[in-house]
Specification:
The protein is mainly beta and about 375 residues long. The chain has 2 domains: about 100 residues, Exo-inulinase, domain 1 (Jelly Rolls); about 220 residues, Jelly Rolls, CATH 2.60.120.560. The protein is about 5% helix and about 30% strand. It contains 2 helices and 23 strands. Strands 11, 13, 14, 16, 19, 20, 21 and 23 form an 8-stranded antiparallel β-sheet that branches. The protein has a 5-stranded antiparallel β-sheet with strand order 12-15-22-17-18, with no helix packed on it. Strand 13 and strand 14 form a beta hairpin. The longest helix has 8 residues.
Length: about 375
């Protein structure tokens, strides 16, 4: 069966398949395109041998053969593939997509669909199988995330669980909590005192840290981990997930080989270049909009940096390569840099306005 489906609706991917066959309805009658309408582009859709055939047309945008009927909760194939939580449109059409093509030589290629069935009644959620959850609700932990071991590292409302980096109380000024956002105020704001970096009250060893961040123009910040803070040390040293406006902040051109750019292991390992030039991974960071970051610290010392769904950095603490990178960096004189078995997590105040939300963690 050759199937490529784009479903523009509130998809429920995790429904069980153990229902009677009589509850399944055909979206396609096998004879004509009754019940469908074409949207956007003008790719060709025809019916041949009981199949819907979509044919590419050069110069046309993405084309969709969409159901006239709208759907909310439903099953397509009963195999859990993704887990997405949002508060968007609760129902919509289901569409078969023929993608736009840029090369004239690709015109005339076909995509086939058949046996398209749907179930909309007596739906029973199936086990999630620990599929990674994309939760787009702000500062929210879903039941499935709780089951998997995640909790909010910041509650979205107060400074509970956070301190100044010198272990004094949370800064009275310099950080702002409003509308579910934790923000560093700009140095130019008249009511700002230098809040300084903030750290978690708790120490973490192996963990999976997820967060959303929003950069202002030319801003610089970062998230550090395995921080051993003390009253004498205002900003603890530790590995840093760089958060930066690469296009405008001068730090992006410093360091070595781009190792101070967005999502890099700051001053040690540059974020991976795109394997596909069209992907432009760093360009996916939208200034003034929310982006998704992730740091995974595995029990064996392997660390991953993720940015908007792309793995940007992977390294292992304590290896000869890691030690050599530290030796040539600005942290060369720091004893056992990044090697603490556990430490605090730090949000950096670099004097620029950067906002955070939906900060959650799972201890591994």
């Amino acid at each position: 069966m050759k199937i490529k489906m784009t479903m523009l609706a509130c998809l429920v991917f995790t429904m069980a398949m153990a229902q009677s066959k009589s509850e399944w309805k055909s979206l396609f009658n096998g004879k004509d395109l009754s019940g469908f309408k074409q949207l956007n582009g003008k790719a060709k859709y025809t019916v041949k041998n009981g199949e819907i055939v979509g044919t590419t047309v050069h110069g046309e945008p993405n084309s969709f053969l969409a159901t006239e009927k709208l759907y909310g909760d439903f099953v397509i194939n009963g195999i859990a593939c993704a887990y997405i939580i949002d508060d968007m449109t609760p129902e919509g059409f289901i569409a078969l997509q023929v993608h736009a093509i840029s090369n004239k030589a690709d015109e005339g290629k076909e995509i086939h669909w058949k046996n398209i069935k749907i179930k909309t009644t007596n739906l029973t959620p199936a086990p999630s199988d620990n599929i990674f959850v994309i939760n787009l609700l702000n500062n929210n932990i879903s039941a499935e995330e709780k089951k998997q071991g995640y909790s909010l590292l910041w509650d979205g409302k107060t400074n509970a669980g956070w301190l100044s980096a010198n272990l004094s109380p949370f800064p009275a000024k310099g950080w702002n909590i409003e509308n579910g956002e934790l923000s560093i105020r700009n140095a130019e704001e008249s009511n700002r005192n230098d809040g300084g970096d903030i750290i978690t009250e708790k120490e973490y060893g192996a963990f999976d840290l997820q967060f959303e961040f929003k950069l202002t123009d030319s801003a610089n910040s970062g998230i550090k981990y395995f921080i051993a803070a003390s009253p004498e040390r205002k900003a603890g040293l530790g590995p840093e997930y760089q958060i930066l406006d690469d296009a405008k902040h001068p730090d992006a051109k410093m360091g070595a080989g781009g190792n101070r750019t967005m999502a890099s292991l700051y001053d040690l390992i540059p974020a991976a270049p795109s394997l596909d030039p069209k992907a432009a991974r760093r360009d996916r960071v939208a200034i003034g909009q929310w982006n998704r970051g992730r740091i995974v610290a595995h029990p064996d010392g392997t660390i991953e940096h993720w940015l908007n769904g792309w793995k940007m950095v992977e390294y292992k603490r304590g290896t000869p390569i890691y030690n050599a990178l530290v030796a040539r960096s600005k942290f060369a004189t720091a004893k056992d840099f990044g090697m603490a078995p556990k430490g605090r997590i730090l949000l950096q105040d670099h004097g620029d306005k950067v906002s955070f939300r939906s900060i959650k963690i799972k201890e591994l």
